[in-house]
Design brief:
33% of the residues lie in helices and 23% in strands. The chain folds into two domains: 225 residues, ATPase, nucleotide binding domain (Nucleotidyltransferase, domain 5, 2-Layer Sandwich), CATH 3.30.420; 215 residues, Nucleotidyltransferase, domain 5 (2-Layer Sandwich), CATH 3.30.420. It is of the alpha+beta class and 490 residues long. α1 packs across α4, α7 crosses α12 and α8 packs antiparallel against α10. α11 links the parallel β21 and β22.
Length: 490
C-alpha cells in the first residue's frame, strides 16, 4: 500500500510516493521561496502554492501509479485567510518567520495575559483579518494554516476544512491543558477571530476526507507539522527518543510520552510542549527546543564572508585542521532561542590569534552549531529529567557534513545517528498516513524501519566538560548585545 506524501516546506515543496519498505519514489520538487518585501516581513502567494502542490502531486502519481492514501506535512504556523465559496485567498499569506506582529504580541501579553510569539499564527490571523477582511461576514471566510489550505485544495469541491492536533497546538489559538488541543475561546476573542472560520481539529493519523482533485481520489489519512513529521520519520516512537533537524535553523524534538503538559507555555529552560502526533484517541506529546541559526551560518561563510565556495566545502576545509585551536563561534546571527531566548544576542567569534586560519574559523562555525545542538538537548532533558536519551537522530542539510556530525556527537556526549534521507518529514507523513490504511501495522513497524546512514560516536580524546565550559563562557560574551531587543519577552 503506497502513500503519496505532500511536503510543503519554507523554501520549496515536494511530492513523492513512499513504498511499504519505506523507500521513496517519484519525488518531484518545486522551489517556492517566500517574499520579503521589507526586513522582517515574510509572505507568500497561497494560490500559487496550491497550484504547485497539485502539479507535483499529479506528476508523482503519473510516474509511480495509484496510491492507497495521502499524507500532508508542512511548515507550521504560516497563516492563510480565504473565501469559503470561491477558495480565493484574501491578500498574501503570512509565513511563520514574519515579524510584523511583534507589537501585537506585546499587547496580547500586557492586556490579555496571553503569551504569544510572532512565529505563531494567532497575531498573524488578527493582522490578516484587520487588513483584508474588515466588514466581511466571518461565515464567508476560512482561516487556517498550511495543512488546512492543502487539504482544502486537494479535496476540491468537498471543501474540507481541517487541521490536526500537531498543527493546531502551535498556533497560539488552541489550549492543550492536560488533554487534546481545542480552540481557546479567550485567545480567539482577544484576537478578534470568530470560531466559525476555523478548521475542525482532527487526529494526525486517520481518514479525514478524499483528495478529489487527484486521480482516483485517494483518502487523506495524515496531517502533521514538519518537525513532528521528522520525529516519527526518524522512528522516534518511544519516550526518550529525540531528533534534531539542522536546516536553516535547528529544531530538536524529544518524545515525552502520553501525559499531557501542565501548561502550553514556554518552560523555564526555554522549551515548548508540543503534540507529537495523535493516532485515534491516543495522544503522544513532546518537547521542542529551537535554534535560530544553523545552516544559515554556513551560508554566511559562503555568501557573505567568502571563506568557502560551497556548503559542501566546509567539511574539507574544517577537517584540514585537527581542532579549532580554541576559537569559538556563537551562532547568534538572529539572536538566541532555547534556552536563552535573547533576541538581542549577536554572533561572536572569540579566541582569534595571529595563527588563526580560515580553516580554524570554518571549523569553529561548525562546532558552534554543534554546541547549540547540545544546548537544545540539555534544555529538553532539564525539563524532563526522568527521560534518558541514548542517541540523537538527525536530519537536514547539515546532517551530511561529517565534521559537523562528529562535533555534535562530542558536544552531546552521545552517539549521533544520521537519517538515511535528508528530509525525514516525508517518511514521517508516510508512516502516519500508512498506519491509517494498514501499510504499517503499528509503531513497532515504524521503529523497525529505521536504517541510519551512519552512527557517529563521541571523540574519547576530547574532554567534553572542558569544551562545554568554554562554550558557556563564549555564550555569555554574545548575549545582551542589543539591550532593547534582549528585553523583549514573548
Amino acid at each position: 500500500m503506497s502513500i503519496l506524501v505532500i511536503d510543503v516546506g519554507t523554501s520549496g515543496l515536494r511530492a513523492a510516493v513512499v513504498r511499504p519498505d519505506a523507500t521513496i519514489d517519484a519525488l518531484h520538487y518545486r522551489a517556492f521561496a517566500p517574499d520579503t518585501p521589507f526586513a522582517g516581513l515574510v509572505e507568500f502567494d497561497a494560490a500559487r502554492m496550491a497550484d504547485l502542490v497539485l502539479e507535483v502531486s499529479r506528476a508523482a502519481l503519473d510516474e509511480a501509479g495509484p496510491v492507497h492514501a495521502v499524507g500532508i506535512t508542512n511548515q507550521r504556523a504560516s497563516t492563510i485567510v480565504w473565501e469559503r465559496l470561491s477558495g480565493r485567498p484574501l491578500g498574501p499569506a503570512l509565513g511563520w518567520q514574519d515579524l510584523r506582529t511583534v507589537g501585537d504580541c506585546m499587547v496580547a501579553k500586557a492586556e490579555h495575559a496571553l503569551a504569544l510569539a510572532p512565529n505563531q499564527s494567532a497575531t498573524k490571523a488578527k493582522w490578516l483579518l484587520e487588513t483584508y477582511a474588515a466588514g466581511r461576514d466571518r461565515s464567508e471566510l476560512c482561516l487556517g494554516t498550511v495543512d488546512s489550505w492543502i487539504a482544502w485544495t486537494l479535496s476540491g469541491q468537498s471543501r474540507l476544512h481541517v487541521t490536526d492536533h500537531s498543527n493546531a497546538a502551535v498556533t497560539g489559538l488552541a489550549t492543550m491543558h492536560q488533554g487534546p488541543p481545542y480552540w481557546n475561546v479567550r485567545a480567539l476573542a482577544a484576537m478578534g477571530i470568530d470560531p466559525v472560520m476555523l478548521p475542525t481539529i482532527v487526529s494526525t493519523s486517520g481518514e479525514v476526507g478524499r483528495a478529489h482533485a487527484l486521480p482516483g481520489a485517494p483518502p487523506i489519512t495524515a496531517l502533521v507539522g514538519d518537525q513532528q513529521g521528522s520525529l516519527i520519520g526518524q522512528s522516534c516512537v518511544r519516550p526518550g527518543m529525540a531528533k534534531c533537524t539542522f536546516g536553516t535553523g535547528g529544531m530538536l524534538d524529544l518524545l515525552t510520552g502520553q501525559h499531557a503538559p501542565v501548561s502550553p507555555e514556554r518552560t523555564a529552560h526555554g522549551t515548548f510542549p508540543i503534540v507529537a502526533w495523535s493516532i485515534g484517541d491516543a495522544m503522544s506529546w513532546g518537547a521542542e527546543s529551537i535554534m535560530l541559526s544553523a545552516g544559515s551560518c554556513v551560508e554566511w561563510l559562503r555568501d557573505d564572508m567568502g571563506l568557502i565556495g560551497s556548503a559542501e566545502e566546509s567539511h574539507a576545509i574544517a577537517s584540514s585542521v585537527a581542532s579549532s585551536d580554541d576559537v569559538y563561534f556563537v551562532p547568534a546571527l538572529l539572536g538566541m532561542a532555547t534556552p536563552h531566548w535573547d533576541y538581542g544576542a549577536r554572533g561572536a567569534l572569540l579566541g582569534l590569534t595571529r595563527g588563526s586560519t580560515r580553516a580554524h574559523v570554518v571549523r569553529a562555525v561548525l562546532e558552534g552549531v554543534a554546541h547549540r545542538g547540545a544546548d537544545l538537548l540539555d534544555a529538553a532533558l532539564a525539563d524532563h529529567p526522568t527521560l534518558e536519551v541514548d542517541e540523537l537522530r538527525i536530519d537536514g542539510g547539515m546532517s551530511r557534513n561529517p565534521t559537523f556530525v562528529a562535533a555534535l556527537a562530542t558536544a552531546i556526549g552521545r552517539p549521533v545517528a544520521v537519517s538515511p534521507v535528508t528530509e525525514a518529514t516525508t517518511l514521517g507523513a508516510a508512516f502516519l498516513a500508512g498506519l491509517a490504511v494498514g501499510t504499517w501495522a503499528g509503531l513497532d513497524d515504524v521503529a523497525a524501519a529505521w536504517r541510519p546512514q551512519a552512527v557517529i560516536e563521541p571523540d574519547p580524546a576530547v574532554e567534553r566538560a572542558d569544551i562545554r565550559a568554554r562554550w558557556a563562557e563564549a555564550v555569555t560574551r554574545s548575549t545582551g548585545w542589543i539591550p532593547a531587543l534582549s528585553a523583549l519577552d514573548f
